[in-house]
Design a protein that fits this description.
The complex is a heterodimer of chains A (311) and B (291). Chain A has 2 domains: 216 residues, P-loop containing nucleotide triphosphate hydrolases (Rossmann fold, 3-Layer(aba) Sandwich); 65 residues. Chain A is 34% helix and 29% strand. Chain A is built from 11 helices and 14 strands. In chain B, strands 1-2 form a two-stranded antiparallel ribbon. Classes of the chains: A alpha/beta (311), B mainly alpha (291).
């Protein structure tokens, strides 16, 4: 099946600064493609190049099998995007904003169709209110409605959960899953909230300093049987001594913020708990840590370039 | 592009700021009209003092045509600021709001976006000029009545027959519109280099002030560049009120003293408009959107 996005040896230099360097990746139909990297890693620059906001210094971008250079208009008709902040015209209503951007996408939608779109993002009740009265979460949802109004095949969301409260983050996550599963959209989503990406991404790319570190299917990158466990006891130094003198010693990892960390198989957690209890250790907390976060920190801290191992 | 132009006009006229310019024009013209209505006699006596004894005037000096001329002279100096408020905001304002990047992810060519935005600022400029014409000319004609038009130049007096005035105003307003579109083009061009509106608005006014000073200063070193400055030609609308005289020193109805000057000035202004908008297109096509 044809790749939705195919990026080959992409580079962008701003004078002396190299923001993106020799970056290649592919997004396949139906992917929820997580795009990860630390601040300044080159995520937004790459996304802006995909949307023709920034001209690449080198490299090729193909979307839907067409060159972005030569078929910009045809390609953008099939792409919807929210880039960083959901900026819209604050002096217009949600409905007017949606209508305006729909027309810019070459559509002449009926009121019913626009209201359906607003309904999908939970804004139908505020359709005629000026956007300047909206919360950040409502603006974000309106931004997504604008990105979807012309029924694009590819949706690009750059940090869609920025500035949202937990409920807003959950709403956006559910919306992305809905669009992927029910509407069969291909979605590229960049976020610094690794937990969110872990929950929704089917494939992911991690970049650092503009270069690819790793790309692949989430399930293969993150071995779900292996967990990083956070352990908190009534006396952590005593627990540490006990563990160091036991068969669990080789599972110990460097402590973080006073917490004991162990790397082990998920099945071993009850056994570890029984061992600690038998040693009279008062266990207060046994919590598997965010798998992607550890993986991400390991990858980005190591600065090693790993070839994509799945395609 | 027609759709995009409609959208740009829709955005302009949905913003309260747009109506500030129309309100300001209304207030300024009303102040002038009320002032001349209340104390116009004293004003004309003061102005005519220099010509006392040279000739007597039979008729109504303070008529609608004369008032409109006064309004145009006073107002056209300030209108560029009101035009810059919108034109210099066309791109920088979008960059500031963050909507520029949303706009550019839509399937529209950048050239079409630039041209639609410029045309929208031209429409706004023309509407502002029409509003000045409605208030300055038609309301003045209604309030003060009509008669021959009596113009005091620096060393002579021009009397334009009532039947010969109206087309001259049509020409003057068209030329003033061209001048103001040049200002709009300048402001529009400068709006590509900033991500807030204040900078381009101030820059536009600064360029106009500096160029006006260069145009009016009578210093030989500046004389070579004067013909190429748009500000030198912005006041050419007054040429429509200078006419030819026959051998008997009588005005030739329907004539203009120096039509070549009007054409030359119009060409210089059009050249400026093309240069500013052309440069804007070139800059924008290559511009990385980082806002």
């Amino acid at each position: 099946m044809q790749d939705i996005v195919k990026v080959t040896q992409l580079a962008k230099r701003f004078n002396q600064l190299t923001a993106v360097n020799d970056l290649s990746f592919t997004v396949k139909p139906g992917d929820v493609y997580g795009f990860l990297g630390q601040n300044g890693a080159g995520k937004s620059t790459t996304i802006r190049m995909l949307l023709t906001l920034i001209t690449p210094t080198e490299g090729d971008i193909e979307l839907f099998g067409m060159s972005l250079n030569r078929h910009r208009k045809e390609i953008l008709q099939q792409v919807g995007a929210v880039i960083e902040k959901p900026d819209v015209y604050k002096f217009l209503s949600a409905y007017d904003n949606l209508k305006l951007f729909a027309r810019l996408s070459g559509m002449h939608p009926s009121r019913t169709m626009l209201m359906d779109q607003l309904e999908m993002v939970g804004l139908a009740g505020r359709a005629d209110d000026q956007v300047k009265t909206f919360s950040q979460g409502m603006k974000q949802r309106l931004g997504i409605a604008i990105a979807l109004v012309h029924n694009p095949g590819l949706i690009v969301l750059d940090e869609p959960t920025n500035g949202l409260d937990p409920q807003g983050i959950a709403d956006i996550r559910n919306l992305i899953l809905f669009l992927s599963r029910e509407k069969k959209k291909t979605i590229i989503v960049s976020s610094h909230l690794l937990n969110e990406i872990e929950q929704i991404a089917t494939r992911m790319l991690i970049i650092d300093k503009g270069r690819k570190l790793v790309e692949g299917a989430t399930s293969e990158l993150l071995d779900s049987t292996q967990v990083v466990l956070q352990l908190n006891t009534a006396n952590n130094s005593q627990a540490l001594n006990i563990l160091q003198g036991s068969s669990w010693a080789d599972r110990l990892k460097p402590m973080r913020e006073g917490q004991l960390i162990l790397g082990l198989n998920r099945d071993e957690i009850p056994e570890l708990n029984r061992f600690l209890v038998s040693m009279q250790v008062q266990v207060l907390l046994l919590q598997p840590r965010n798998n992607l976060e550890d993986y991400f920190l390991q990858i980005t801290a190591g600065k090693q370039h790993v070839d994509a191992f799945t395609n | 592009m027609w759709t995009h132009l409609q959208i740009e006009l829709y955005k302009i006229f949905r913003r309260p700021r747009t109506y500030l310019a129309f309100a300001a024009i209304t207030a300024l013209i009303a102040v002038i009209q009320v002032g001349l209505f209340m104390d116009g006699k004293e004003y004309t006596e003061f102005v005519m003092a220099d010509f006392e004894g040279s000739f007597s005037v039979d008729g109504k000096i303070l008529n609608g045509y004369f008032i409109c001329y006064v309004i145009l002279q006073l107002l056209l100096v300030h209108v560029p600021l009101l035009i810059a408020l919108i034109a210099a905001d066309m791109i920088s304002g979008e960059a500031n709001m963050g909507t520029l990047r949303v706009l550019l992810t839509k399937p529209q060519s950048r050239t079409a976006i630039v041209l639609a935005k410029f045309l929208a600022s031209v429409v706004y400029t023309l509407l502002l000029l029409i509003w000045i014409a409605v208030l300055g000319l038609f309301v003045s004609m209604w309030v003060f009545g009509t008669d021959d038009m009596f113009l005091m130049k620096s060393s002579y007096v021009v009397i334009v027959k009532e039947s010969d005035v109206f087309w001259r105003y049509a020409g003057a307003f068209c030329f003033a519109a061209l001048s103001m579109v040049t200002v709009a083009a300048l402001g529009f061009f400068l709006s590509f280099f900033a991500e807030n509106s204040i900078g381009p608005i101030v820059a536009t006014m600064s360029v106009i002030i500096v160029a006006t000073i260069l145009s009016t200063m009578n210093i030989p070193i500046f004389n070579t560049i004067k013909p190429f400055l748009f500000t030198t030609h912005m006041i050419t609308w007054k040429e429509f009120f200078d006419f030819k005289v026959n051998d008997a020193n009588e005005a030739i109805i329907g004539s203009i003293q120096n039509p070549d000057k009007i054409i030359r000035s119009a060409l210089v202004l059009v050249a400026h408009i093309i240069a500013f908008v052309g440069a804007a297109v070139l800059v924008f096509r290559k511009k990385d959107i980082l806002s």
